[in-house]
């Protein structure tokens, strides 16, 4: 075979191999957009977590509730990624807005004697009543790409059949690892001007 013919054959074979490789590349498309289904899943997970913390307290006491609350907070909130804008329903004073995991934990299960900063009640939001039912009633869900906002009420029922309906606003953010986390949680009691 002539030298130029051999080079042309090698070039043709190389081009064919490149064409075959390019014809079926392995492509993984990752969307950062948060879906409505993910928002609803996050809210249901939050409710399930609140009920689990309450049940842990009722069945096994403060330490069990604190361990459950830590797991719920670590799974739902973005404290590992930075401060979270967290304004609980019934917190008061200079510590009303919590930006740290410890502040959120104290709100859910009550003050930790090792963290005297938070002046919450003796029991936390998840432990002062035995919550047995939690439902989300959204008034608006805004899907904004890698963030989403939801605003509405959480309808809570305790073991005595009494209900509470705090108003909630959440902002969710897709993290770099693909998870969706709460970065803003604002909660308040319905306002009564009478």
Index terms:
194 residues, alpha+beta, Nuclear Transport Factor 2, Chain: A, 4 helices
Secondary-structure map:
Blueprint: H1 3-23, H2 36-60, H3 62-76, E1 85-87, H4 101-109, E2 131-144, E3 147-158, E4 163-164, E5 167-174, E6 180-188
Parallel strand pairs: 1-6
Antiparallel strand pairs: 2-3, 3-4, 3-5, 5-6
Helix pairs in contact: 2-3, 3-4
Describe the overall structure.
- The chain has 194 residues and is an alpha+beta fold.
- The protein has a single domain (36-188), classed as Roll (Nuclear Transport Factor 2, Chain: A).
- The chain is built from four helices and six strands; from the N terminus they run H-H-H-E-H-E-E-E-E-E.
- Strands 1, 2, 3, 4, 5 and 6 form a six-stranded mixed β-sheet that branches.
- Strand 5 and strand 6 (180-188) form a beta hairpin.
- The longest helix is centred in the first third of the chain and has 25 residues, at 36-60.
- The protein is globular and about 85 Å long.
Distance between the termini: 100 Å
- Sheet with most strands: 6 strands, mixed
Radius of gyration: 25 Å
Number of domains: 1
Number of strands: 6
Instruction: Using the coordinates shown, work out and report the CATH topology.
Output: Nuclear Transport Factor 2, Chain: A
Roughly how much helix do the residues carry, as a percent range?
Answer: 25-40%
Strand content: 15-25%
Under the CATH scheme, which architecture would be assigned? Roll
CATH class group: Alpha Beta
User: What is the count of DSSP helices, taking H or I runs of 4+ residues?
Assistant: 4
Shape: globular
Mean pLDDT: 84
The helix/strand order is HHHEHEEEEE
